[in-house]
Design goal:
The chain has 128 residues and is mainly α. It has a single domain, classed as Helix Hairpins (Orthogonal Bundle), CATH 1.10.287.70. The chain is 73% helix and 3% strand. The chain contains five helices and two strands. Strands 1-2 form a two-stranded antiparallel ribbon. Helix 2 packs across helix 5. The chain is elongated, with a radius of gyration of 21 Å.
Amino acid sequence: MNSITKLFKVETINSREVTVEFIRALWHLRSLLGTLLMAFFALCAAMFWLGAPVETATHARVSFGATVYYCGVTALTIGYGDVVATTGIGRALSMLLGLYGVLVTGTTTAVAVFAVQRAVKRDARHAP
């Protein structure tokens, strides 16, 4: 056995098992995920009506679809800069969207780690 394998206790796992556990964990969190999705669209609507998002190049007000794009890019903490909020409320909503994105990313990461752990435990129980 390789010394690195001994040091880190490397185990092989079935990717299908991880996927099944991930979907199962997401199913158990469906009410939380639904609430987070509704909160996202509420923030999008608030941004559209109160944040006055505009295109950076033309300073023209953007459509609701472009506002959803802006909110998604902001929540993912990418922030291209092609659409910006122009009011104080819009900037505050942008900060909330950033925090929202960290929450969703953390939740997704935690669920993924949980799924891998469950798959490893399940494999260990069924190992010969």
